[in-house]
Specification:
It is built from 18 helices and 12 strands. It is α/β, with parallel strands linked by helices and 586 residues long. It folds into 2 domains: 188 residues; 271 residues, Rossmann fold, CATH 3.40.50.1820. The longest helix has 54 residues. The protein starts with a helix and ends in a 13-residue tail after the last helix.
């Protein structure tokens, strides 16, 4: 596709063809009805019986099925032509808009896409000092419009080619074929359900024209933005829209709560004792929940808007910050990425643990992923590689909280649910990655390491090359080899004074259990064998000893107290795990 072809395309002809097929489908439908009433029904109502009658009735029924199938196929041609018109019309409009803006800015666009302008400040047609930047923007818009037209051309050509083949070889007369074709056309208008195989989602998305894709993003940002198998840049665009919708919704709900009911019941109703009004209690509960959700969503919006320090300007300079997931399920969902995981050669996905919240993603917690990004970039540079990194902070589950969720940190139900979601997310990154497969690293901190462990036990395993576990209370298995990627690719960092590493947790909470646990599994932690133990069989890397008060949170270089931890993680993420500073297992 070139500029002149798209600009001059008479797409009205597509509408003319579409209308013709509509007319044909209508006329064909009338013929089917006439056949039914004039031939089939008369035959059924006749007194004709016997073998010949049975054969005739069977043939009539088969012919009726063929006619109905043909009618469906004709209708599918019309639908494909309508989608073609919509796709080409959108691409053409985008191109014309870019060309008009170029003319207004004093830029001249050549047929081959080259852009020139008057660069003489003394000339009456001087395009201005910002011309180079304007030209780059116009060039990008023109390229996008041409790509949009190419995409529409390819997808529609495939659909029409399939229908033409059916027509030429007679398969379009088969009821099953017509039904399958109709189902496929209908599926293009239906968003796959959450949890659908990411490769199937990718195929569905690629089967849409650009115009259809834009309509999906506009009309269903909450679904598109959180669907594994959708490209990262698209998810970011949809989620940024959905985030604004979530913020507006919480503000509206707070406004609609109305004034607070009186806090206490009248003394006469309670025999004189101060008793809180149930209406007030419920009002306050709703208000506090909405405020907490709003604060979390707004903190993420502030980070995306650059109102929060992202630690940019370091080794990783200014990577794009993408919002790959946002939602209000449970405690809230938020997934952000420094760098585009669809384009990076090295992709890390960190699962946080105990006390992680949506507000923390917008606050300082998610900076762990940014520090991993910077460390991996530094490692690549040291090893004379061209840095190409994406670092994801994945809060796609309800992390246990010390307050409000009881002993959930001792349970595995949240990890089971989170592990299934995390597995699907990483399979989605595999499906949408461009070019050669990325080197992918799964990371789990604290309870998040149990989530990673559970994710490895899903059907098909976890599609990663390396696993990093830090501050782990156990991962649900007793051997590194059981994580499915080979023990040599499982790396563990545990600080000497990390409380998680200092106590076999069952004994901390259930004294009678401690003795049994110590006998049956001296390396046991809350959720299986201690990953830092020799018996687990992973590679242990050096970290700072730390102190009981801070070591659990310092694996990612917070306050520069993590020692070798963050540099080692950066080496693993960048594909240089063989260069880590090692430490002997316990």
């Amino acid at each position: 596709m070139d500029i002149k072809t798209l600009h001059d395309a008479d797409i009205i002809g597509i509408t003319t063809a579409k209308n013709a097929f509509d007319t044909l489908a209508t006329a064909f439908g009338q013929h089917v009805e006439n056949w039914q009433s004039e031939v089939v029904n008369r035959l059924h109502n006749s007194q004709w019986t016997g073998t010949a009658a049975d054969h005739a009735n069977t043939r009539m029924q088969n012919l009726e099925n063929e006619l109905k199938a043909a009618q469906q196929e004709i209708g599918l041609v019309s639908r494909a032509l309508q989608d073609a018109y919509d796709g080409f019309a959108a691409a053409q409009a985008h191109l014309i808009s870019a060309l008009d803006d170029a003319k207004t800015a004093g830029l001249t666009v050549a047929p081959d896409g080259g852009i020139t302008w008057d660069n003489d400040p003394k000339s009456p047609t001087f395009a201005g000092h910002g011309a180079p930047e304007h030209a780059k923007q116009i060039q990008d818009r023109i390229t996008a419009a041409l790509n949009e037209a190419d995409h529409a051309d390819q997808t529609i050509n495939a659909r029409l080619g399939h229908l033409a083949t059916n027509a030429s070889n007679g398969t379009g007369l088969d009821s099953a074929t017509a039904k399958a074709d109709t189902d496929a056309a209908n599926a293009l208008q239906q968003i796959p359900a959450a949890g659908t195989d990411p490769n199937s989602v990718k195929g569905w998305w690629n089967g849409l024209t650009d115009e259809q894709q834009q309509r999906m993003i506009l009309n269903h940002p909450d679904q598109i933005g959180n669907l594994d198998g959708i490209p990262a840049a698209v998810r970011d665009k949809a989620n940024q829209t959905n985030l604004k919708n979530l913020i507006q919704d919480r503000n509206n709900q707070l406004k609609n709560l109305g004034p607070a009911p009186k806090q206490y019941l009248d003394p006469a109703e309670t025999n004189g004792g101060p008793v809180e009004n149930p209406d007030y209690t419920e009002w306050k509960r709703k208000r506090d929940t909405l405020k907490e959700q709003l604060a979390g969503f707004q903190s993420i919006q502030d980070r995306l808007d650059g109102k929060v320090d992202n630690g940019l300007g370091g080794p990783g300079s200014n990577p794009p910050l993408l919002l790959l997931g946002i939602g209000d399920q449970g405690q809230g969902r938020a997934i952000i990425s420094w760098g585009d995981p669809d384009k990076a050669k090295n992709v890390s996905s960190l699962v946080p643990g105990l006390n992680s919240t949506m507000a923390g993603v917008g606050g300082g917690d998610a900076m762990t992923a940014k520090r991993v990004y910077d460390s991996a970039v530094s490692s690549a540079q040291i090893n004379h590689d061209t840095p190409s990194v994406a670092s994801v902070f994945w809060l796609g589950y309800d992390a246990p909280q010390l307050e409000g969720s009881g002993p959930s940190v001792l349970m595995q139900d949240r990890a089971e649910e989170g592990g299934a979601a995390y597995n699907k997310f990483l399979n989605g990154l595999r499906a949408t990655h461009e070019g050669e497969p990325a080197h992918m690293t799964a990371q789990g901190h604290s309870y998040g390491s149990l989530v990673v462990g559970k994710a490895t036990q899903q059907p098909g395993g976890l599609p990663v090359d390396d696993i990093v576990l830090v501050g782990s209370p156990g991962v649900g298995v007793d051997k590194a080899s059981q994580l499915g990627i080979g023990a040599d690719h499982v790396y563990v960092g545990t600080a000497k004074y990390d409380p998680i590493a200092m106590a076999p947790a069952p004994g901390m909470f259930v004294p009678g259990w401690a003795a049994v646990e110590a006998i049956t599994n001296p390396d046991g932690l809350w959720h299986g064998t201690d990953p830092a133990s020799q018996g687990f069989g992973a590679q242990r890397f050096s970290v700072a000893d730390g102190s009981v008060g801070d070591s659990h949170d310092n694996y990612f270089g917070k306050d520069d107290k993590g020692g070798d931890s963050l540099p080692n993680i950066g080496k693993i993420v960048s594909g240089h795990g063989n260069t880590i500073t090692r430490e002997d297992p316990r």
